[in-house]
Amino acid sequence: MAAILESWDLTVPGVPPRSRFYPLEPIGIGTPLVESLTSYLLRLAEAHGVPVGVLTDELQRGAAASLPSSGLKICTCPYRLLAYSVNGVEESAVKWVYVLGEATLREDLNHLTLLAFQDFLCSLSLFRRFRTWCPACYEGWRASGRSVYEPLLWSLRVASVCPLHRRSLISVCPHCERPMRPIMSSSRPGYCGRCGGWLGDMPDGPLPEEVSPASSNYWVSNAAGELLALAPRTRARPGALRQAFRENLEACVVRLFRGNGTQFAKFIGCTTTSVYNWRNGAVTPRIDQLLHLSDRLRIPTAAFLTAQSSAEAVDWKAVRPAVEGYALPILLHRPSEEIRQALRLVLGERPAPSLSEVATRLGYRGTEGLRRVSQSLCKRITDRYKKSFGPEPYYNGPRPRICRRRKIEAALKAALAQNEPESVPHIARRLGYTSSGPFFKPFPALCRAIYLKIARRKAARIRVMRRMVEKALRQNPPPTLRALAVQLGFKDKAVIGRYFAASRAQLLARRKALAKKQATQLRRELHRYTWVKPAPSLAEVCRELGLKPVTASRRFPRDCRLLVSRHQRRRRTMAGLRRQKSGLRPSIC
Ligand SMILES: [Zn+2]
Ligand SMILES: [Zn+2]
Known about the structure:
By secondary structure, this protein is an all-alpha fold. It contains 27 helices and no strands. The chain has helices at residues 37-48, 52-66, 91-104, 135-143, 152-155, 216-230, 240-257, 261-268, 272-279, 287-297, 301-305, 310-313, 316-324, 336-346, 355-361, 368-373, 375-387, 405-417, 424-430, 437-440, 444-474, 481-488, 494-499, 501-528, 538-545, 549-555, 557-588.
C-alpha cells in the first residue's frame, strides 16, 4: 500500500520573516558615490507610491509602537524639516538607521551614513543646508535606465565638484530658481521638491567650465568620496581611526619636516595648536581640515585612516618635492630710510590706519620692528588712529562725506548676500566710519536683516554646540572642560560657562567624582604594596602605578612612610646578612 500511494508531507514549510516595507537594495555601498540615507528614504517612498511625508509619518508611528517604553521619537522635527544631519554621526542618524532597518529588515543601512566615523568626525560643518546635485549625473542615470538617487557625497559641505563630470554641483532649481530643503513633503529623487521639475536639466546660460584635475576643489571632492568608500572597511573597534590618524600624521611630520610641528602647520595652512592637539590625540580634525590636509600634502585620505602606517602607503618621493620647494616666508631686509618714507606716507592717509595694520601691510609680523625704525613716526601714527575715533570738531569746517549713499547700500546688500554676513559696525569701520549711525538711518531694513541673519547663524551654532556638550556629558569618562572647548572650536574654556552654565556645573561634578574615584583606587593599590613581600622601594611602586614619588608622598603620606620604613628595614636585614656571610667566609676557607 505504502509503495503504491505516496504519502503527503503535512509539516508547514518555514516562512522567513517578512519586512513591513519593500527592502530596496541600497546603491553603491563601498564606492565614492554611495547613496545617502535621505536618498534611500526618497526612493523607498517612490517605490511604495506615496509622498515621502506619508512614509516618514508611518515610520515615526511604527517606531513609537515598537518601542513604547523608551518613547522613541526618531526626530524631534516634523518630516518636512528633515535635514542632511540624518546622514551624519549624531543620534538622529542612529535612530533613523534603526527604524528603517526594522521596517525593511536590512542590516546594511548604516553604510548610507557617516556612522562609521562616529568617534572620529565631529558634526560641525559636515553637511549643507540645501539640496545639491550634479545635473549631468541625473541625466546620465535616466538616459541609461539606471535608478536615480542622491550620493551621500553631494550632501557634504566640503564637496563642491562632481568627481565624474568635473563640474561644480548646483543647488538652485533650473525651473523655479530657488534652493530647496533635503526632504520636503513632495520630494522625489531627481525632481525639485518645490515645483516638481526635472533636476537633470542644465540651468540657462553658459555651461560651467570643467574643473582642472589639479585644482584643490577637485582633489577635496575626490578625497571626500574616498573617505565615504572607506566606511564599510573601517574597524568596529572604538578609537582605531583616531589612533591610525595620530600615528600616520606623526609619520608625516617626522618624515617631511623632521618632527617640526610648527613648520608642518604653516605648510598645511592651519594653526600650530591644532597640529599639536592632533599629534597628542586630544582632538581629531574636522572633515574640512582632514581633506585640506590631504590636498596640501597630496596624500590620499585613506592613507591617514588605515591602520598600517602611511609610511608604506605613501610614495614619499612624490610628496617631497612640494614640501622641499616650500620655504617659510622670510622678511627681506629693507633700508630704514625706505620704511621711514612709507610711514610718512601713511600719516597722510584717511581714514587713519592702525599701526598693526601698517605693519602687516609692510610685511612685518608685529609692530616691534617698525618702532625700532622710528619711534616718533610710530607714535604719530598711533595718535592719529586714536583721534580718528572721535568726530572731527565742527569749527574745522564741514566734515567731508566719506562714502556715497549708493556705496553704503551696495556694501550692506553684499554683506546680506554672504553666508556669514559681516556685521554693520564692521562694514562701517571698513568704509572709514567711526560708528554705524550713518548706516542705520537711511537703511534700517537692510541693517535689521543683517542683524537677524547673524543672530540666526549664531543661534544655530549654539544649538550645534549644545548638542556636542550634551553628548560630552554622556561620555564616560567625561572630557575635561579644556578638551571640550577645543572640540567646540574654541581656545578658551570660558565659552562653556558663558553659554552652558548648567552643563558646565554637571561636567565639573562628574570630573570631580571621577577624580575622587581614581584617588580611592590609587590609595587602595598603594596600600596593597605595604604588605607585599619582599618590601618594594617607593620609587618602584610609583613606577608601577605611574605616579611621581613627590606626588605620592604629598597625597598619601601615611602609606608612603610605611613603604619607606619597610624597604629600609629590608635593606638593613640584607646588609646584615651580607656582613654575616663575608665574616663567615675566612673561617670556611
Ligand atoms: Zn556628475
Ligand atoms: Zn523647482
